[in-house]
Specification:
This protein is mainly alpha-helical. The chain has one domain (about 1-275). It contains 10 helices and 4 strands, in the order ααααβαββαβαααα. The chain has helices at about 1-25, 40-70, 75-100, 105-135, 150-165, 180-195, 205-210, 215-230, 235-265, 270-275, and strands at about 145, 170, 175, 200-205. It has a two-stranded antiparallel sheet with strand order 1-4. A two-stranded antiparallel ribbon has the order 2-3. A hairpin with a 2-residue loop joins strand 2 and strand 3 (about 175). The N and C termini lie far apart (about 75 Å).
Length: about 280
Amino acid sequence: MNRLIGVIPNLFTLGNAICGFSAIVIAAKLDLSNGDSAGQALLLKWSAGMIFLAMVFDVLDGYVARLIKVTSDFGGQLDSLCDAISFGAAPAFLILNFGRDWEHPLVRNAFACVAAFYMACAIVRLAKYNLDIAIPEPGVFKKFKGLPSPGAGGCIASLALVRSLGATEVPGMEMLTARNFVSFWGLGGSFLVALLMVSPFPYGHLTKHILRKKIIVGWAIALPLVAPVLFYYPELIFFTLFWIYALNAPVRQVTYMVFRRRFAEAQPPQLDDFSHR
């Protein structure tokens, strides 16, 4: 009975991998080079939805394992292998499909290179995480070093949701359509997310970050302003949440460094400074 109970968290972990594999299978049917259609939009949504569902299984397997107290090294290794499929290979395959909007072969090859680079960074990120939990440092479970692979996968999946809007235009900005936005941002944004996964920037847990009191208060203030947009285009909710989470750490760190340098330059010289001179 104990062995059977111990298998339950691993079943959730394997559900994560199955969702990632399903996202790849669905994305393989995409053909964005032939323009937008309801069928293509549905495939984009289903592929992104499978990645988001993989995140649910990724959260549940750890929660169930702690709940029934059956955590093991095998479960941790299995979790990383499944994450490599769902948040490494599946988002990379979506990035590859974003390049099909371009007719120029050079741009398509650039998307293919970024897709490969993204998957490589996701694998490196997961390997580093395995080492961190094998030799834990103080605070390692409170903060992640580098953008977690599920957060990066969510950023790419949210781009697929935005791309499903097709030729939808931003009012007053006819050239800024969902298709054009993803065509341009899909390349640079995916490359940036890949770099953030192997960066030293500290990240909190995604669910805890979203449920922070400051974040909730901020959304309560901003909700009346963005509610009309989110009502008509709910796909933008995921895009906003995941990209704010991904860009928050580097923007905050760079801003802190700039202000600290300016503050230090604005300070009057101390007596010790004159004695050293």
